[in-house]
Amino acid sequence: MRPFLKTEALPADVVTLRRALFLATGGGILLAGGFLMFSILSPGGVSALEWILLGLFIPLFAQISFGFAIAFWGFAILLRGDSYQVMRTLPPNSPGDPPPGSTAVVLPVFNEDPSRIFAGLENMFRSISATPDSHSFDFFVLSDSNVPNRWIEEELAWVGLCKRLNAFGRIFYRKRRVPIHGKSGNIADFCRRWGGRYRYLIILDADSVMEGETLVRLARAMDANPRVGVIQTQPSIVRGASLLQRLIQFTTRVAGPVFAAGSNFWHLDAGNYWGHNAIIRLQPFMEHCVLPEIPGSTAANRHIMSHDTIEAALMRRAGFQVWFAYLEPGSYEEGPPNLLESLKRDRRWCQGNLQHFWFLFAPSTSFANRLHIFFGLMAYLTAPMLILFMLASAVDFHGRQHYAVLADRLAEMQSAPRASLLLLAVTVCLLFLPKLFGTVLLIRKASPFGGPVLLVASGLLETALSILLAPVLLYFYTKFVVLGLLGIRVAWKSQNRSSSAIPFADALRTFGEPTVAGVLATAAAVVWTPQLIPWLSPILVGWLLAIPLAMATSSERIGLWLARIGLLQIPEESELPAILTGLDAPPNASPYSHSGLLHVALSPYANSVHASMLRRSTVKARHKEAYLTSLRVRLLSGGPENLSRRELLSLLWDAEAVALLHREVWQCADDNLHSWWREGMKQFSEASALRDR
Amino acid sequence: MDKLSLPPEWNAACVRVEDYLRAHRVSSRTHLLQLTLDMTAAAQAEYREGSPETPVQAALRLATARTEMWFSLLAGSDSSTDTTAASRGRVAYFVTECNRRWPAAFLDPSPPPEMLAAIRNATIQAGPALEFRSLVRKEIDYGPMEDIARETWDQFSWGHVLRAFAIWVVIFFAAYGIWLRFFS
């Protein structure tokens, strides 16, 4: 491989050549597919409906062709070795090296399970403490949690962790009072407060974990390349228990590397940013990447929901490079536990990606970023297009058949199947070859995947399940696009990353829709186009089985059973890295839905920790004091259900009120306390007595 | 006064005081019991017949006042009403694990100097010193699509849509009528 000492030394002809090769591969396949489709439609002349069909086919096939082109070049580059990787610019470590630039590692959180967040943070802190450069790194938990319990649990977990690791002054916790603009607003708030203190920012997700060594290497790579604005790592999806999680983590481990290498092949220094497990140069980020407003009729519509792709485009626009460290190990995240959570996330992403439409036409968007935005858009837009394509095909077929029978020209229709079969074969190859590429690359080092036989068997199982799941996703993506285009917005919701089975009632409520769609579509096909049923069956079966599929893929029992027999295995399952140990601590199970509130009211320490972290107002308006007093009275006499979440948050945001609540709850006679408090005090005291023993 | 012969109505007060003190993680059991009885007895001694307070309220008022005062003192404040200092002292007591290191020192009016030093050096820092930066949004030219969209938003109303729909319905029926009349 050629030496690559500085990313600035990236030869322009390499960029041009690689992009030309990529576009020629994708474009060539698209041209061939388009020609085949035209040859299918052309006998007997092309009707208006068939032109529409062709118009829908081109973007749909483009998605597949360019996806294949990425995988093909990824496969080639992984076989041959890639000279142009950002992490290759790192000089070898030597004892006299200056420490890496000051780096803030931030975890934006929003109501996720604190025990999991802080277990991951603890592992990362221990891991970085084992490196000689740990003092360049500070950690921040940036909370936007708006569930009172979560807030209190986070605070207590933070104090506990800092105490355990003696990390006060190294691990910080910030709770935002008004969580506007979701995660991007959370990061922006951090930048306003502390952005000036650090050179780099490593952004994680609540479920992300990164090795200390990886954090150091990323900071050093930034030091070595002053024109690099962002380095995105490729996090391995790990710790899956449900069938869906294990399916996703296996797919990303087999096919993921070829797509990642292929992406780097064509974009090189014009990569994308995924919003987490990435390092950012803070100064240009604060100067150039403040999210602009997009055109919109209301203020809410003008805010960009999905910030990462746009931030990468803005960073590039400012003259900085964005690289993808796709081979860098030690970067992890977790997948959604079930289809419901996965779809919730997709709905957010879909609406965010649709907003990116505006940047496609912005003159300042560079070619590579325009492509990233276009691929992101098409990832969801192709779903309604495919449904329209199928509908139009069925109508066209019905019409042709009717016409052929009436005009006695059935023979003309006979020429179509050969070209159709060829097009089908090409499409299937384009769809499944990337998985084959991934398997071929792994087959000689397959032991972490259970050996070659289990690797292939897992691949076949994964393919079969993906075929069944694809129509369900197709249905929901279509729905999301329609909702998005109608301007129906979604709130930024936390993912439930703890594995949980979908109960039948929930499955029926959500996945009843595609099932009904499947029944109607099957009935329509039986009546009007029975010959098309075999062609439509993959879609129809997926829709008809949506409910059992959703339930089965959410099952940990099935997922873990497959793990026991060695299917869908990934290397981290055969040998768990130290950084991922101890993350399975059960969430703080409490019989109380307001256990955090109970704790902050009864425990002198929880109360003081919470109160000491709030800003105290020197002057308090009399009406506010009266309001808070009334809240405390209602809380003690009526229990927490007597207060809305907003009222509870108002109370918890006031240090004086929190201290008074603690005093009053202990001083209150039993008769004046709501039964919730009496029972809570009993439980609390029993727990304290048990701890003392 | 015999500390072990509390009247029955003070039993509940005694239990509540014990629970309250235990919540401070006093690790010495004998010290905890001693403090409980002392405080309950003191509250009983202060209690006046006909007081609107119940024994529980009276005992806990005294217990919370004493502990808060003590934590305020630990934090270097001599004000009994300074809840900030009390919170600060409590947090410091907790994070420095004084309850484990000096088990008999809880509520001791003259705590060991090492404990005082540990408490006064302890801080919990939620964030480093602020260094404010302003983030300025830069406008972006979205090209011709933006102008088209803005014109649409500025001019769009459902009234226009309904009017246009009504006109097309009229045209359709008129055309259909002409076709039926002259061409069918």
Give the number of helices of chain A. Answer: 28
> In total, how many domains does the architecture of chain B comprise?
2
What is the overall shape of chain B?
elongated
Low-confidence stretches of chain A: none
Compute the gyration radius of chain B: what is it? 37 Å
Strand content of chain B: under 5%
Structural category of chain B = mainly alpha
| Pair with the biggest interface | A-B, 61 and 57 residues
Topology of this structure?
The complex is a heterodimer of chains A (about 700) and B (about 180).
Chain A: H1 12-41, H2 48-80, E1 103-109, H3 114-129, E2 137-143, H4 148-165, E3 171-175, H5 182-194, E4 200-203, E5 209-210, H6 212-224, E6 228-233, E7 236-238, H7 243-254, H8 256-267, E8 278-281, H9 282-288, H10 299-302, H11 308-317, E9 321-325, E10 331-334, H12 339-355, H13 357-360, H14 367-407, H15 410-413, H16 416-443, H17 452-485, H18 504-528, H19 533-544, H20 546-553, H21 556-564, H22 571-574, H23 595-602, H24 604-612, H25 622-638, H26 645-652, H27 655-667, H28 675-692
Parallel strand pairs in A: 1-2, 1-4, 2-3, 6-9, 7-10
Antiparallel strand pairs in A: 4-8, 5-10, 6-8
Helix pairs in contact in A: 1-2, 1-16, 2-8, 2-14, 2-16, 3-4, 3-6, 4-23, 7-17, 7-21, 11-14, 12-17, 14-17, 16-17, 17-19, 18-19, 18-20, 23-24, 24-27, 25-27
Chain B: H1 11-22, H2 29-46, H3 55-74, H4 83-95, H5 98-101, H6 113-121, H7 144-155, H8 158-183
Helix pairs in contact in B: 1-2, 1-3, 2-3, 3-4
Give structural notes.
The complex is a heterodimer of chains A (693) and B (184). Chain A is α/β, with parallel strands linked by helices and 693 residues long. Chain A has helices at 12-41, 48-80, 114-129, 148-165, 182-194, 212-224, 243-254, 256-267, 282-288, 299-302, 308-317, 339-355, 357-360, 367-407, 410-413, 416-443, 452-485, 504-528, 533-544, 546-553, 556-564, 571-574, 595-602, 604-612, 622-638, 645-652, 655-667, 675-692, and strands at 103-109, 137-143, 171-175, 200-203, 209-210, 228-233, 236-238, 278-281, 321-325, 331-334. Chain A has a domain at 595-692. A seven-stranded mixed beta sheet of chain A has the order 3-2-1-4-8-6-9, with helices on both faces. A three-stranded mixed beta sheet of chain A has the order 5-10-7. Chain A starts with 11 loop residues before the first helix and ends with a helix. The model of chain A has no long low-confidence stretch (mean pLDDT 91). Chain B is mainly alpha-helical and 184 residues long. Chain B folds into two domains: 8-121, no CATH class; 144-183. The longest helix of chain B is centred in the last third of the chain and has 26 residues, at 158-183. The chains are: A alpha/beta (693), B mainly alpha (184).
